[in-house]
Amino acid sequence: MTTYKGINGFAVQSVATDPSPLDEGQVWYNNASYAFKLATLTTTGVWASGGNYPANTSSLAAAGIKTAAVAFGGITTVNVGTTASYNGTAWTANPTGLGTARRALAGFGTLTAAIAAGGYSTGVEAVVESWNGSSWSPVTSLNTSGYYATGVGIQTAGIVFGRAPATGATESWSGSAWTTVNAMVTARTQLAGFGTQTAAIACGGANPGSNRTTTESWNGTSWTTVNSLNTGRSDLSGAGTQTAGLAFGGTTGSPSVATELYNGSTWTSNPTGLNTGRYEIGGSSAAGTQALALATAGNVNPGNISNATEEWTGPGVATTKTITTS
Amino acid sequence: MAYKYCVAECWGKGFITHDDASKYQVSGFPGNVWQIPANNQDANLWVNKVAGSFKTKAEAQAIVDVEVTAAQAAWDALPDEQKQQPFNRQRPTAIVLE
Q1: Which partner from A5, A7, A260, A308 sits 20 to 30 angstroms from A53, CA to CA?
Q2: pLDDT at A187
Q3: For A14-18, A114-118, A199-203, B3-7, which range has the lowest pLDDT when averaged over its residues?
């Protein structure tokens, strides 16, 4: 008879605490919980808690990935310029913030090189600021002021699209100047985006009042309508690339936990969503990878602003299962 | 599916781990109310881990209702022109726990 020892060269270990890190197929006996346990690989992605954001904030922007991100702007009870960095465990507020405190701004880039574009302060803004990892500097303004746009790309090559009032306007950023380029097919605001300056996805949003499932693909020159989201919503966030993307959160009229994966062709709803449904999240990894998304703060319900952060981990991660007789 | 409820304050990293989320769904609601599947040993252990206080569904619903009612009152008090702004366009909606 084949035995565990015969395969692995050692017997099942008896331990008081579960081992870490885990190897797929590893079996052990936990003598504290009196249970045999098995390490398996997850087949779906899930959201886990991250460090709490420094303040309950909504309508903020973020750039980077879940282990190295920066979030900025938003609204607490007033518009803020707060800028904080995330190291995968905790947020640290930067001594200085945006030059123009504002909410509903577009953000893209990385922890140390990001762009904050447009937004709403005492009025609609065209202001753009550039982040060098420690401070913000004003750079060339958007051609057209706007808020509730979304942005993707890196500090030297990005695009900003959509905005309020609903429009399909798209502007391309060279690192020094904005150029108005072909607009989206469907005008909208409060949408999500991910990808790069030359290969991006725009999804969801509002136009006006109706939450959209509309998805469009950008090839560096023009937008094409592609397969729609499964759940129509606005104020959602996005992460990843044009062929491996993620859309999460938003509002359908009430805060949504919906998390959908895009494979370059179709959207698939993940079996589980955010742990807390919310919208106007600071979503990072818009230009990063699908597996490294971060959802920061946002509205749990209008009037209930959150500071919770959630980290996305895609499938294929080792996890513990208890072996039972059933 | 049947659910259980608890109240616990999310302290941040480690509150819901990847391992937790892989085994069962934890859903958050206003008032630090958390919903977990009933009859799930791992989920019950999670409540202990986060020092959660179990609540009946009625108790949990009452906590959520207080939060939503306060948010609705704040929204109702806004001037009409502010209610037209995209940021304030939605009156907080009632949440009914399953």
Answers
A1: A260
A2: 95
A3: A14-18
Q: Chain B closest CA to A110's CA: distance in Å?
A: 21
Does residue A55 belong to any structural domain of this protein?
yes
In a domain, A60, yes or no: yes
Q: Which residues of B touch A52 (CB under 8 A)?
A: 10-12
**Residue B90, both tokens:** 């939605």
Judged against a pLDDT cut of 90, whether residue B40 lies above it is answered with: yes
Of the candidates B16, B29, B75, the beta carbon closest to that of A48 is on B16
Which range of residues forms the domain containing residue A12? 4-41
Q: Domain for residue A325, yes or no?
A: no
Kindly list the residues from chain A whose CB atom is less than 8 angstroms away from the CB atom of residue B88. Answer: 302
Mark yes or no for CB contact A276/B71 under 8 Å: no
Residue A42 has pLDDT above 90, yes or no: no
Statement to judge: residues A11 and A89 lie in one domain: no
